[in-house]
From TrEMBL:
SMART domains tied to this protein: PQQ
Domain (Pyrrolo-quinoline quinone repeat) ranges: 127-340
Organism: Novipirellula herctigrandis
Gene3D superfamilies: YVTN repeat-like/Quinoprotein amine dehydrogenase
Signal peptide residues on this chain, from the entry's feature table: 1-26
Stated name of the protein: Outer membrane biogenesis protein BamB
Keywords: Signal
InterPro entries per the UniProt record, alphabetical: PQQ_b-propeller_rpt (IPR018391), PQQ_rpt_dom (IPR002372), Quinoprotein_ADH-like_sf (IPR011047), WD40/YVTN_repeat-like_dom_sf (IPR015943)
Biological classification of the source: Bacteria, Pseudomonadati, Planctomycetota, Planctomycetia, Pirellulales
């Protein structure tokens, strides 16, 4: 019997409740990494183990996406929202799709003619995911040499727009990737680069007024902040600049920090009870686990690099798929390696998603691998092809798996959002 097959519903339901979800119900997917910030699907839903894009088996719908981007969709009320960019038109936009049938309902251009001149070849001009507070959608874009945050009603009406900060990296022009998150009545945005404006910013969700700002090191970093309740304390977690930090959500005051990790982190930290884990790889490669109870201890580390993708934590264990395509499971208590197994030949940007007792892992080559979420042994349950490249993290909602994927059509890249379900 798989380790999580029987207790998964009870364990994950306890996690959802303990993490203090915001006003949106658990059956929605309101922001990056879902309602609890852990990339766990609601334990009451299920999605197929196998599908076939060629025959249409378990493919509910496939919607062509105008433009290109790496952002993960959010699913709220009756709609799906995601961001996209068109380099030819020079636009950055928000798309609205029907939650049930996937039809493209609307497209709202946020910025035009102000795309950055250079970004990393594996980045996009629409990489941050939207966030939702129950009334407003928040989207952030790197454009016009700054990070801009816009609040929209669900019908596309602009509520407010704020310039978060200048964003003019000098050493590396790799672009931007941090997603905004909603915590209480605040929307929190990381804008970290090699200048004095580098910081973590919090804005009032209703008015856009800046509530607090945390000075961050002058260092290019790509990680998204995340909110969690650990050791009985609500906190904002962010890794990068050779440290892992915790901040008070209401004031931005530092609760604790541990000097570890490396300069640039792309992945979002994950947690288990009193421990926080993150992985990264520029310039130093590694995975680090620290205490989250204020004792400021590095508990364990290794040299495994998961650079763009985040890890996936369950009670007492953390799963990872490294840049070279090798999957791992470690015990969070002491870092003991439970197993490792090669899945593919490298190339991963999407983060693994937990659905009941299974982990869905999407590769940059358009393959989705389904693993048992078991620390006892490696168990590959299925392999499914869906397109030619996947950079966005799959979302599990409504007994469906939503995957933003790219097909090479007539020598051009065409993105689709695909819904997989029975």
């Amino acid at each position: 019997m798989h380790f999580l097959r029987f207790p998964v519903s009870v364990s994950l339901l306890a996690l959802f409740c303990g993490f203090g979800c915001q006003v949106t119900p658990a059956q929605d997917w309101p922001q990056w990494r879902g309602p609890a910030g852990d990339n766990h699907a609601d334990p009451n839903i299920d999605v197929p183990l196998r599908w076939d894009i060629t025959t249409g088996e378990n493919i509910l719908w496939k919607t062509k996406i105008p433009g290109y981007g790496h952002s993960t969709p959010i699913v709220v009320n009756e709609s799906i929202f995601l961001t996209t960019a068109d380099e030819i038109e020079g636009t950055q936009s928000v798309l609205k799709l029907d939650r049930q049938d996937g039809r493209l309902r609307d497209q709202w251009v946020m910025h035009r003619g102000t795309l950055p001149e250079r970004i990393h070849s594996k980045n996009s001009h629409a990489s941050p995911s939207p966030a939702f507070d129950g009334e407003r959608i928040f989207v952030s874009f790197h454009t016009d040499d700054a990070i801009w945050l816009t609040a929209l009603a669900t019908d596309g009406r602009q509520q407010w727009r704020k310039k978060v900060s200048e964003f003019k990296p000098e050493r590396f022009q790799f672009g931007y990737g941090a997603s905004p998150i909603v915590e209480g009545n605040l929307v929190i945005v990381a804008a970290e680069y090699d200048a004095s404006a580098s910081g973590l910013y919090a804005f009032d969700t209703q008015t856009g007024t800046q509530v607090w700002r945390v000075q961050r090191p002058s260092n290019l970093n790509f990680a998204s902040p995340i909110a969690a309740t650990i050791a009985g304390q609500r906190q904002i977690l962010l890794a990068g600049a050779a440290m892992i930090c915790s901040y008070d959500p209401g004031t931005g005051k530092e609760l604790w920090s541990v000097d570890t990790t490396t300069d640039a982190i792309c992945g979002t930290v994950v947690w288990d009870d009193r421990r926080v884990v993150v992985s990264g790889g520029n310039p130093d490669s590694g995975t680090w686990c620290v205490s989250a109870d204020g004792t400021r201890k590095l508990l364990w580390d290794n040299r495994i690099k998961c650079y763009e993708q985040s890890l996936l934590a369950v009670p007492n264990y953390v799963f990872a798929v490294a840049d070279n395509g090798v999957a791992f499971c470690w015990r969070t208590l002491d870092g003991k390696q439970m197993w490792q197994k090669r899945l593919f030949g490298g190339g991963i940007s999407a983060s693994p998603t937990l659905v009941q007792d299974r982990i869905y892992v999407a590769s940059e080559r358009g393959m989705v691998y389904v693993l048992a979420a078991s620390p006892d042994r490696f168990d590959l349950l299925s392999e499914n092809s869906i397109g030619d490249s996947i950079f966005a993290t799959p979302v599990a909602i409504d007994n469906r798996l939503l995957i933003r994927t790219t097909f090479n059509e007539d020598g051009k890249q065409q993105q689709y959002l695909v819904a997989i379900g029975d």
